[in-house]
């Protein structure tokens, strides 16, 4: 399994728009990608500008399929206009 954590910093005034776009991505991913075991948006309770997408994939093929999906490609430009700086990606190998 492969775990990915994507960190987004946004301007607080973009929170509702960011959550709407990311929420649609989460719904589409969970409904259509059997190789994705977890795909959840979380919000930092102490920092209103920070969000993370927690992702868990069966294998690299599932990661590749997600990145090639129409919903992922459509969300990218929309999310990009709402975040500050660059999204940070961390990739982990699942131990157990």
Task: Walk me through what this model shows.
It is built from three helices and four strands. Helix 1 packs antiparallel against helix 3. Strands 2-3-1-4 form a four-stranded antiparallel β-sheet, covered by helices on one side. It has a single domain, classed as 2-Layer Sandwich (Alpha-Beta Plaits), CATH 3.30.70.100. It has helices at 15-32, 60-68, 70-80; strands spanning 2-9, 36-43, 50-57, 88-93. The chain is globular and about 35 Å long. It is α+β, with helices and mostly antiparallel strands. The mean pLDDT is 95. The longest helix has 18 residues, at 15-32. A hairpin with a 6-residue loop joins strand 2 and strand 3 (50-57). GO terms for molecular function: monooxygenase activity. InterPro entries: ABM_dom (IPR007138), AI-2_Isomerase_LsrG (IPR050744), Dimeric_a/b-barrel (IPR011008).
């Amino acid at each position: 399994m492969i775990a990915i954590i994507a960190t987004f910093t946004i301007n607080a005034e973009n929170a509702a728009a960011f959550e709407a776009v990311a929420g649609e991505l989460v719904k589409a991913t969970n409904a259509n990608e059997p190789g994705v075991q977890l795909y959840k948006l979380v919000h930092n309770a102490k920092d209103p500008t920070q969000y993370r997408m927690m992702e868990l994939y069966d294998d690299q093929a599932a990661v590749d399929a997600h990145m090639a999906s129409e919903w992922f490609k459509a969300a990218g430009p929309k999310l990009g206009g709402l975040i500050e700086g660059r999204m940070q990606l961390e990739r982990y190998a699942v131990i157990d």
